[in-house]
Amino acid sequence: MTENMYEIKDKIRQRFVKVAIDPTAPQRYPTGPATAKKLGYDPAEIDGLPASMTESFAGVGNPLGLHEVRPGETVVDIGCGAGVDSILAARKFGPSGRVFGVDMTAEMVKKATDIAVAAAVANVEFRQGEADRLPVLDGTVDVVISNGVFNLCFDKPKVLAEVFRVLRPGGRLQMADILLGDAVTDEQVEKKGAWSD
Fold first, then answer.
1. 4, 60, 62, 141: which could form a disulfide with 148 (CB 3.0–4.6 Å)?
2. In the beta sheet, which residues pair with residue 99?
3. Model confidence pLDDT, tens digit, residues 37-76
4. Could you tell me which of 105, 24, 7, 88 has the C-alpha nearest to residue 50?
């Protein structure tokens, strides 16, 4: 990774720290519960979550809408943010399953953990980590979910290798993300603001 890539990664981290600390501040992308509802989340489920959680929602789709999460499954949520998808997954399968939310920012991990404790959701755990180095054991996960994170990762093949490392045989990836239909130049890749603004 070039020095500029480290700077870009830090800028991405700073952007999401701001969303954790001051979620009502203007962003260059839609956030909050209204955005989640527009993206296909069940309004009753979103309204049933603490406002302190949904106000930090910064997803781009609904990975849980792609396939049902089943009782007893273990789920990893890459880039969990304040924990919206993690908590919804944990509630869907009840106490028989387990969710591990992973986020690169300590602020989001703390926020998600505090909210889960206050909401008495016992089968979810939040860990600080990155998509290309997941703090999860090999072959222990049934489902990996991710919402708007993959596009922010530099080494996508490495991230996919991590996903397959943690998945059990027959496991699945449920991902909502944004894609670019055209090729990008090296100059565009190196532009810090293109990744985080």
1. 60
2. 75, 124
3. 999 999 999 999 999 999 999 999 999 999 999 999 999 9
4. 88
Amino acid at residue number 174: Q
Three-state SS at 81 = coil
Distance in angstroms (rounded) separating the CA atoms of residues 136 and 2: 27
Residue recorded with tokens 């755990």:
125
In CATH, what number does 3-176 get?
Answer: 3.40.50.150
What residues does each domain of the chain span? 3-176
What does the H/E/C string look like for 126-184?
A: EEECECCECCCCCCCEEEEEEECCHHHCCCHHHHHHHHHHHEEEEEEEEEECCCCCCCC
Contacts within 8 Å (CB) and 24+ apart, 22-28? 23/55, 23/56, 23/82, 24/55, 27/58, 28/197
Residue appearing with tokens 């701001």 = 18
Q: How far apart are CA 118 and CA 30, in angstroms?
A: 26
